[in-house]
Records
---
Amino acid sequence: MYRFKRLLATAMWVFIAQTLQAQKHYNAWFRSTLSVPVGEKFKVDNEFQHRRQSGFQNGNMLDNDLMFTFRNWVHYQHNPNLKFSVSPFAYFSHYRIIQDKPDKEAAPNSEVRFSVAEELQHKIYKRIYLVNRNALEYRIINNQQPNVIRFRTRFGGRYELTEQLKLTLFDEFFINVTGTSSAQFPDHNRTGLNIEYSVLPNLKFDVGYIYLIRFSVPSASGNIRLYENNMFLNLTYQLKNNK
């Protein structure tokens, strides 16, 4: 408990009083998901993700590779308001965040990740919901020892304009529980807007914006705080359940 309080105090200090150099970055995130229902309560998702980033001293968010990902999820819908999820395998190829010219030529790092999550929603008024998602990730990164356990929590509100169109505002905070120094206890924070639109009963897309703050990013001049502007587009296709 003492160690946790010390880490929490350090995180608050870094968040409030950090005076390190800051940089801005621009990214575009794309994700496609094939969703396969298994019975009434289970569903298996297979995700493919690609992220692009701006280059050295430019704002072109499509300029360079940032990340490639394959991940699968197994979801269990316990009831209409509570869902449990397990990701038994995910593979990430991370390219270096470009802050200097040589970063563009750096080889990507690979990561294998295992995750568990729960997602809860609560209806507060007609078509307005409070939503919360908590997840724990075990990250095996090829150039980093020891492995990292990271906790993430997201809280927000969703307004369902129609059955096909939904608007969500959220904030998600990431902390490194083990595998890093106390100065890296706070990892990053995301604040975003998501618009979900169901084109067909089995096809939907999400489009939105995420403002991201990375609290400690290695650079040639030492660790810095990095601010990112991210536009994203997610496409999800669900196969029909024959049962």
Note: The CA atoms of residues 66 and 97 lie 7 Å apart.
---
Amino acid sequence: MNFKRTSITFAYLAAFAFLVSCNNSSNNNSDNTTPKRAGVKADRQLIIKELGKLKAILASKDKNKIAGVFNFPLSDSIQIYTDSEAFQKERQLNEDKVSRKLFLKYFQEISNDIQIEQVKELFKNINITGLLQKDTLEYKNLIITEPCYSFYGIEIKNDRVTLSVGSGSNEDYKSEVAEDEIPENSSEFCESVIWWIFKFENGKLQLVNINGAG
């Protein structure tokens, strides 16, 4: 995660990480109230269908299909930072806009920054059909021998669907570094999060924001 993302506070990150840590790593689904109204359930079914389409698109590894998830030129709410000087130069020449052509040309760099591989892992670790009963589904992959752990989450709130992927510090990990050095499980190394936020409208999911911290 690029450290230039500063609009989301670390307090939010810490709060989210704490929320995830409260769930069992083998089945980290929250106990939110089951949607009761028929209209809400119908919407949930459509949301699940749309998330299934997104899962398939990302799994395809086809950059042209993946580009279809975005509206071009990308709005400022889709935050992209890469170390590619060539990308930055071309973006500036394009009035600081990311066109479809630019997206496809620098797909690998952009994919790394917005963590497409991690979002694919989210779908591998979370059964989206659970959204019929719950507003929030979460999973934490904590390995006791690793200083950091990965977490994934999906939350539905009104017309917003948020996918969250990130990492946190394994507090039980025994660091091998000297006492005067930064521990391997330090938040400086471990803690990061990125959010893909969609708006559910007219039966479709529209990506409106990508942001993160860490």
Note: The longest strand covers residues 148-157.
---
Amino acid sequence: MTHDDDDRTTFLFYAPEREPHAWGLDLAGLGEALRESFPEVRYKVRQDRTHQGEPYLSFWAGTDEGTEYDRTATVHGRDCVMLSDTTAGEAAPFLLWLRDTYLPASDLVRFSSEPAVERGIETDWRLPANGDRARVADELRHHLSVVEGS
């Protein structure tokens, strides 16, 4: 099965398991970084009622091209950003921004997806430390095709 940009899912991007807080994720700081980098942004740091009041960032960001990013970031367990209802092609520019602009090092991004979680696949997929939008999107699509083939 091939994945085109019509396939919408939830992607999870997170720090390596051996370095769960390697991103040094500051939730309010991430919200401000989003505000500085995207033309339209709304965010709020909230308390998670299901995880002993752990803080998380709820955010929405819009691009000039009309792409919307909506979801959360958390530091519960390990630094993590989740994007919902998005395609590989839409997620790629956000991921490039996260990897190349926000994170302290470009080799710190692991990822998974809702289909992988639903199938009990706990493998950390590594995002290449370099590569353009097309390569990142292809990596996300490859992940989805492997997951759905298993």
Note: The mean pLDDT is 92.
---
Amino acid sequence: MLKTFSWQDFLLAATLLSLIWWLGIWLLYYRNTCAKNLVPLAHSWSEEVDELEKESGLMGKAVLEQGVSVVAAEDFSFGMPVSDQGKQLGDLADVQEEVKSICGILAAEDGSKEDFFTLFEMIRNKYPKIASSPSLDSLNVFIRDHVPFALSEEELENIWA
């Protein structure tokens, strides 16, 4: 099959393919240099380019959701400061602490129910808002668990009256 081609045919085909190849190279790489009215784009290393601020982005700064704030690591903690713990616990914790101390005194000195009621009257006078508190039932259960003697339901209800 190759015997049918002559040297003239081969040289003509090689020349045409070479011209097509070099025309493609010229179109890809050298076409822009021949066009005189095209201006090349400025690069970041040239002084003609305006640099955007890195923080703002194209649309501006992102807005945080409502209630979200950015704090430093030393300002972040999971608990209240020691000075605010008393405010956090409230009257219920104070009453429970006083009941514990009264029960400790009664257990140490073999106190009776009457002694408990007289000592508890000071707590009731000191914290009058607790009698109308919604956590009164849990406080009554706490008292029943910590006193060194048995208290009936009537006695627990009358203790706040």
Note: DSSP finds five helices and no strands in the chain.
